[in-house]
Amino acid sequence: MTDGPRIAIDAMGGDIGPATIIAGAAAARRKDKALHFYLFGDESLIAPELARHQSLADAVTVHHTTESIASTEKPSQAIRRARTTSMGMAINAVKDGRADAALSAGNTGALMAIAKLALRTMPGIDRPALAALLPTLGDHDLVMLDLGANTECDAQNLVQFAVMGAAYARTVLEIDQPRVKLLNIGTEELKGTGELKEAAAMLREASYLPMRFDGFTEGDQLSRGEVDVVVTDGFSGNIALKTAEGTARFVTDLLRRAFTSSLRSKAGFALSKPALHMLKVHLDPNNHNGAVFLGLNGLVVKSHGSATPKGFANAIKVAASMVRNDITRKIGDDLDEFRAHAFNGEIGGGENAAKPVHGEGEAA
Amino acid sequence: MTDGPRIAIDAMGGDIGPATIIAGAAAARRKDKALHFYLFGDESLIAPELARHQSLADAVTVHHTTESIASTEKPSQAIRRARTTSMGMAINAVKDGRADAALSAGNTGALMAIAKLALRTMPGIDRPALAALLPTLGDHDLVMLDLGANTECDAQNLVQFAVMGAAYARTVLEIDQPRVKLLNIGTEELKGTGELKEAAAMLREASYLPMRFDGFTEGDQLSRGEVDVVVTDGFSGNIALKTAEGTARFVTDLLRRAFTSSLRSKAGFALSKPALHMLKVHLDPNNHNGAVFLGLNGLVVKSHGSATPKGFANAIKVAASMVRNDITRKIGDDLDEFRAHAFNGEIGGGENAAKPVHGEGEAA
Question: Residue B122 in contact with residue B331, Cβ under 8 Å?
Answer without folding.
Answer: yes
